[in-house]
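Ops channel
N.P.: pipeline sanity check, posting one input/output pair.
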């Protein structure tokens, strides 16, 4: 359509647009001549097919659309069908289809081969709960008095009331000191058991133990009993019968022998010193006791005794306990020939236990065999419900190959752990090089027998860590014990820094060991009531007086107050226990670093694909900076994770970035850093 009034300008708002003019067919025909002239003027462009042309002359304007030249509009159906049915194109299509799927399957196979054959990090061996966790050793008499009998002594129900403490710490096993009925309420070193199937009334009864094991399992905790199977009391019915009738049912339940030349059968000695034989006037023979005269040794060569001990083990497992720590194990068997003497060791005063080479009375082959038999008893219960029952062996003063034999082997397993007391025997403190030697030599021994390591810093027969090594080293040594490979044993109260406590009106003496041991020996200074709070009776009992005095430093050394202090002994311990869950700690390798000296001990825990950890201790007497720049796996920067409660450096606060070429460590301080290992 043409509009002679259109001027190419849009009308403004409020204006009236020009009207279009329409023309008839006739009028258009009358102007054909002029249009022909117009066509001539645009002849050079009229041949442009398919284009829109706008022309204008003095009389009129016009829009012309050229013819559309369609050169190709696609094949029709008939043409397509001709090619679709052509045998050549059919073969081409099927060939391409087959090639596509062959390539797809080939890529899939190649991907699978790469996944299967490509080098990868080996999956870590699954660990049992006793390998991953922490054993917390409780002295039952001193942990918590439930208040039922107001006697100021701890009991089983007291532990039930404090299960939240173990959960809070993150430990998963509770090892309880012997609970069996004894001749007196305060059994001496070694214990005088009068009934292996009854609980000392001071501690509760069988129902209390069942309630404890049930409540503990609900919290994910395992109860482990200390079990004495080497000896009993002279008041035990077995001994009374044995002394009265040598031919009776229990005539051979203990080790008896005739004297020689008017004296004992041989030169064997008690660990308390002097002869290990005591004459019984009723039986007119000597009986053997590696401990005191009131603690005669059971005769494990007797089938009756062996069966009784196995049944005792079954009995306590039936009460719900998850295993045992066997005490006094090295002394279970003696030589069958009682007339042979043990060799004297030159240079040691005669009469002391250490003066003889105990080839006839300690760690005999029969001992390992019987412990393996007990292992089989525990396996009976595991086979029923799939839950592993642990067996720890307290192999006193046993080291090297004799200690490693308690692991057994794949065909004849014995103990899960022979308890390692190397750290306890170090009474004069540690040096960096000394720690390195102790740790690496022990780990090497354990690896040779494919065993699992363990570490004990304190127990009820030696001074507490804080008193033995100094309170400043509590955190640092906890870092070592909890972060090196193996299962740690924590003695109750060490996690809050409890110290030795003197008896009422007395003074603190060294706990008796070796030649200082006597039949009345004890280490009660390391067995004082647990310090729950700062009250007069430290939250241990409602009685007016606990069975043993409490510490004098309870204003700060107590669990309640330390829970609220971020850098307290308690919370640092908790953080270290939690850190054990990291892959590098649980499954990683350990390397003692070259910077280790007399004053510095440092090691790393590394596992590929996980953060690594650097632990450094300053065991010297002055603050220092340690340079780790030459260590190939340590980067230039690490992050502070945990440090001792006594640390003061601003550059090692939690979360700080630390230059590994200059790591500041204070006196008696420990520091844990995380880093991304270099490979």
């Amino acid at each position: 359509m043409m509009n002679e009034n259109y001027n190419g300008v849009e009308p403004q708002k409020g204006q009236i647009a020009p009207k279009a003019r329409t023309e008839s067919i006739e009028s258009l025909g009358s102007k054909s001549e002029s249009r022909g002239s117009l066509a001539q003027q645009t002849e050079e462009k009229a041949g442009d097919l398919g284009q829109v042309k706008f022309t204008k002359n003095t009389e009129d304007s016009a829009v012309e659309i050229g013819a559309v030249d369609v050169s190709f509009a696609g094949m029709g159906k008939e043409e397509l069908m001709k090619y679709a049915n052509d045998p050549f194109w059919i073969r081409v299509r099927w060939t391409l289809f087959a090639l596509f799927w062959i390539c797809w399957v080939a890529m899939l196979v190649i991907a699978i081969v790469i996944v299967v054959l490509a080098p990868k990090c080996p999956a870590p061996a699954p660990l049992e709960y006793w390998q991953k966790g922490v054993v917390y050793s409780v002295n039952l008499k001193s942990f918590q008095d439930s208040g039922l009998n107001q006697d100021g002594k701890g009991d089983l129900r007291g532990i039930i009331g404090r299960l939240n403490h173990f959960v809070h710490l993150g430990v998963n096993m509770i090892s309880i000191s012997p609970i069996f009925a004894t001749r007196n309420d305060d059994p001496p070193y070694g214990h005088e058991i009068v009934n292996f199937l009854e609980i000392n009334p001071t501690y509760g009864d069988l129902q209390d133990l069942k309630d404890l094991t049930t409540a503990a399992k609900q919290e994910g905790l395992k109860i482990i009993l200390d079990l004495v199977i080497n000896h009993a009391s002279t008041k035990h019915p077995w001994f009374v019968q044995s002394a009265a009738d040598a031919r009776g049912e229990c005539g051979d339940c203990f080790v008896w022998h005739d004297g020689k030349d008017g004296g004992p059968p041989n030169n064997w000695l008690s660990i308390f010193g002097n002869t290990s034989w005591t004459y019984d006037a009723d039986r007119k023979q000597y009986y053997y006791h590696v401990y005191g005269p009131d603690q005669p040794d059971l005769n494990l060569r007797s089938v009756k005794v062996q069966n009784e001990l196995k049944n005792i083990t079954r009995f306590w497992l039936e009460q719900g306990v998850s295993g045992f720590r066997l005490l006094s194990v090295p002394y279970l068997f003696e030589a069958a020939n009682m007339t042979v003497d043990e060799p004297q060791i030159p240079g040691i005063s005669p009469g002391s236990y250490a003066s003889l080479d105990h080839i006839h009375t300690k760690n005999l082959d029969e001992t390992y065999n019987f412990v393996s038999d007990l292992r089989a008893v525990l396996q009976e219960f595991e086979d029923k419900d799939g839950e592993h029952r642990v067996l720890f062996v307290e192999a006193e003063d046993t080291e090297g190959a004799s200690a490693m034999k308690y692991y057994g082997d794949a065909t004849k397993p014995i103990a899960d752990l022979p308890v390692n007391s190397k750290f306890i025997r170090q009474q004069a403190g540690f040096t960096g090089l000394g720690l390195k030697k102790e740790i690496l030599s022990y780990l090497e021994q354990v690896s040779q027998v494919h065993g699992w390591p363990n570490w004990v810093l304190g127990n009820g027969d030696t001074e507490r860590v804080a008193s033995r090594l100094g309170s400043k080293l509590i955190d640092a040594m906890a870092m070592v014990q909890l972060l090196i490979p193996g299962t740690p044993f924590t003695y109750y109260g060490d996690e809050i820094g409890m110290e030795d406590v003197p008896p009422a009106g007395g003074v603190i003496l060294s706990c008796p060991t070796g030649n200082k041991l006597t039949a009345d020996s004890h280490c009660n200074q390391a067995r004082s009531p647990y310090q729950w709070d700062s009250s007069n009776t430290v939250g241990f009992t409602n009685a007016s007086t606990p069975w043993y005095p409490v510490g004098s430093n309870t204003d700060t050394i107590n669990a309640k107050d330390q829970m609220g202090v971020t850098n307290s002994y308690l919370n640092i311990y908790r953080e270290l226990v939690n850190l054990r869950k990291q892959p590098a700690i649980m499954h990683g390798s350990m390397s003692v670093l070259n910077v280790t000296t007399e004053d510095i001990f440092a090691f790393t825990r590394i596992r590929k694909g996980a953060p690594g950890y650097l632990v450094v201790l300053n065991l010297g007497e002055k603050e220092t900076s340690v340079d780790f720049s030459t260590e190939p796996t340590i980067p230039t920067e690490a992050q502070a994770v945990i440090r001792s409660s006594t640390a003061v450096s601003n550059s090692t606060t939690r979360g700080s970035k630390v230059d590994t070429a200059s790591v500041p460590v204070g006196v008696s301080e420990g520091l844990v850093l995380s880093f991304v290992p270099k490979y």
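N.P.: looks fine end to end. Residues 1-49 have pLDDT under 50 and may be disordered.
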